[in-house]
Amino acid sequence: MSRKRFAVSALLLLCAVTGLLVSCERQQQQALPLMPYSRENAITEAVRLAAPSVVSVNVIKTEVVNARINPRYSPYFGFFDAPHIRNVQAIGSGLIIDERGFVVTNAHVVEGATQITVILADNRQYNTRIIGMDSIQDIAVLKIEGHELPVARLGASSDLIIGEAAIAVGNPYAFLIKDSQPSVSVGVISAINRNFAQNLNDKVFKKMIQTDAAINAGNSGGPLLNINGDVIGINTFIFSETGESVGIGFAIPIDRVKKIAHELILYGQMRQRHFGFRMTNLNQLLANQFQLPNLNGVLVVDVENDGPADNAGLEVGDVILKFNGTFIVESDDLRLAILDVAVGDNILLEVIRNGHPLQVQMRVEEL
Question: What is the CATH number of domain 273-366?
């Protein structure tokens, strides 16, 4: 056999073997089933961890309204308004924070309640009572009597990252639609440290967490979670012209909630804090008098004899620039900063005295 014929035969054999291998490989690929992608992810795991501790809070409130009386029933007076009592049902969400049965929710959910029913995700129902309430900061603690209660994992709100995932969970409709499973919406932390002036209901919201996760009616009092399933805030209110979520919702930071809840559980109320000094805002005349470079800070105008401020060494004429690390520009800033401390806390004031910086440590006493 010539070399040429041998080379042609070898080439034909190689092609045949290669074609056979490709054909077999294609058949194997067609025979293998496609592996489905797992729908489990960090979000579903976070919800799985937190959902059992999220409860529905169903409230009956008694309201006094004016009812228009028809003159046919009162011919001597004509139309007039008469007080009328009616029961109104309200709904909200809450969170079990302790195995002893303590539940946190918003104060506005349960204010004025004559009856409160808490429904768990496993359909257990409990009549409950209010342990304590901080109406100004909109936090209430309830108590249910149950066993083997699921408890939420409380995280921290001091290290939040703008843009990190946020999961809003609520359970408002367990009583209405006989479905005790919570609802979930997902977004991000849009902003932190949002402050709001005292509103018409005398509530003060400071250093709020802003999120675009939908917080709809009835979700007040439910948790805001991070991607690990830790509670980082309590959903409280939204900005909206229609009452529906438009992606601007706000939650109370969990660090503040933990401090308030601790106080309410121990004492049934927020003990009144006593500092023992009075202050005023700076103006240009005062700034010139005390040789200050600007109008930032508040001026101490009175110190109570033998009070907490006096014992700490604070003096009339001191200008407070920082309160526990929070910059103070005017008196409203200090009033907001005070909300984060409780009786017995030690606080650090950074002041200017006679043109020189100074630190003053003070222990908060009960009024």
Answer: 2.30.42.10
Interatomic CA distance for residues 301 and 121, integer angstroms: 54
First to last CA, the chain: 115
Averages of pLDDT over runs of 10 residues in the chain (367 residues) are 52 49 53 69 94 94 66 50 73 94 96 92 92 94 95 95 96 69 92 79 86 88 96 91 77 95 94 93 91 92 95 95 92 87 93 93 93
Token duo for residue 209: 């967490």
Q: What residue spans define the domains of the chain?
A: 50-143, 165-267, 273-366
Q: What share of the chain is helix, strand, coil (3-state, %, to 5)?
A: 25, 40, 40
E-strand spans in 74-160? 80-96, 102-105, 113-119, 125-127, 129-134, 139-143
Tell me the whole-structure pTM to 2 decimals: 0.80
For 165-267, CATH number out of 2.40.10.10, 1.10.3130.10, 2.60.40.10, 3.40.50.2300 equals 2.40.10.10
* Beta bridge mates, 181: none
Strand partners, 169: 184
Closest CA to 258 of 232, 219, 236: 232
Quick one: which H or E segment has residue 342?
none
In angstroms, the CA 92 to CA 319 distance is: 44
Which tens digit of pLDDT belongs to each residue from 132-145? 999 999 999 999 99
Q: Which CATH class is domain 50-143?
A: mainly beta
**What is the number of other CB atoms lying within 10 angstroms of the CB of residue 267?**
14
Whole-number pLDDT of residue 196? 81
Helices and strands in the chain, H and E counts: 8, 21
Same CATH fold assignment for domains 165-267 and 273-366: no
Tens of pLDDT, residues 23-64: 545 555 555 566 677 788 999 999 999 999 999 999 998 777
Catalytic residues: 108, 138, 220
Q: How far is CA 115 from CA 62, 83, 235, 267, in A?
A: 9, 22, 22, 22
Which residues, listed in sequence order, are joined to residue 273 by a DSSP beta bridge?
Answer: 366
By CB atoms closer than 10 A (0-12, 13-18, 19+), residue 124 is: middle
